[in-house]
Amino acid sequence: MRSVQYRGRPGTLLLVKGRQDFVADRTGVLSIIDRPSEEAMEAMGGTGDTLTGLVAALAASGLEIPRASVIAALTNRLAGHLASPTPATRIMELVKFLPAALEEILLGEDKSGGGQQG
Q: The whole model's pTM is what?
């Protein structure tokens, strides 16, 4: 297992999930991710866990933490959109869409030559 740090220091980056997701460091907000937006995801338990797992996996694969955070937020939101959630939707219904959502986000990033953000 390897230690993942941001700018050489642990604990200096935040990913805040909500109607808009914010990636911020000590200098301020780096990215705002607000689409796709699914109202039903706000009350769905477990979306923060999927987001945390995505960031951890992407950072462990070698991505810089800010980029991993943006990709994870986009992926989490897209998986929610693909799952067409209702207030009764369970997190495992969203999890099924994570691989397709991640692939779409990464392919879109490759085509645009950089990050996608709202």
A: 0.84
